[in-house]
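Async update (no meeting this week)

Hi team, since we skipped the sync, here's where things stand on the single-chain job. The sequence we agreed to prioritize is pasted below, unchanged from the tracker. I ran it this morning and attached the output directly underneath so nobody has to dig for it. Comments welcome in thread, and please keep replies under the output.
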Amino acid sequence: MDLTLGSSRHTMAVIRLGSGRPPTRRAFLLLKLTAVTLSVLLFCEFLIYYGVIVRCHWPEVETPADSRGRGPPEPALRAMFLADTHLLGAVRGHWLDKLRREWQMERAFQTALWLLQPEVVFILGDVFDEGKWSSSQAWADDVGRFQTMFRHPAHVQLRVVAGNHDVGFHYHFVLVNSVAMEGDGCDICSGAEAELLEISRQLNCSREQEHHPGRCGDGGPLPASAPVLLQHFPLYRRSDAHCSGEDAAPPAERGIPFQERYDVLSREASRKLLWWLRPRLVLSGHTHHACEVLHGAGVLEVSVPSFSWRNRNDPSFIMGSFTPTDYVLAKCPLPREDTVLTTYCGAAGCLVVLTLVHMRLLASPLHVGWNLLRKFKTT
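Output:
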């Protein structure tokens, strides 16, 4: 009986030990898999945005030599410019595509706001992808998502170029709805041209105020500095053949001629804008690629790349410091989509290796490395 009892106890002990080991090993494996998964998610969905955008800095406007010693320089206005967010709608928008790309833009925008603290943000058109055929309810839903993604503190102003007004004047910026520049006499076109002519008159009056005071009427003059023109469509250019840089159009596409009123503004509309406003700088979007072009008497136009992974692998935005007489621009890159996808693929491979090692279908890399090291030492 004692032997039986002893053997019974021994058997029970074996059963207890045997049944206790697998859950412990499985729990340890689950802990490792969970830790790897959460770490990768935290990095790819949050930390990578801080790691990339923290390297961006506001460009400094140099003080002219002849104005030094005349008191503190006028502080520069810090403005962010982004373009072509293309929020998907209910018709063509797949839920996974919307979730992935909209989360990317939201995290990029919120991180940039927190790190860079701009005073004003301009979005250069193509905010929505399906605005032409959205129903009233779908449009309301899209606007609600936009307001959530691009939420901002009260002290930061957000301006969208193609908004309720065709033409607006904000600080030293003139915002033009490019769709209203078709020049075909439509109601919106006629109204936009009338507003542009009035702004042109006020700007010219302000430039001549020093020599002919009192000519600006009761409304008073606008700032005497040359404005910055903001619009969605670029001014007329034949193609992107002279554009360069990593975020320019692919080489195979740069020589393709642009179509007036579709890819770029018409020559006539471009001439009018340059003549009426005489801007010191033009910022535009629409092409999804970066480009710098000189117009007329050396007026620089900067095409801002798309802000969304949906349009390019390496999105970015423009940072600008502006004074009444000068400006400086800098580009801030965002995380690349292929970097995030590669990280996820590497993490998935790591999870597979951990699982195979646990199931004893694959030797532990540490053991393999140790054995190789021992063999190397013995030889």
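Quick observations from my side:
The first strand starts at residue 77 and ends at 82.
The helical segments are 2-53, 95-116, 136-149, 187-207, 251-254, 267-277, 337-358, 365-378.
Reply here if anything looks off.
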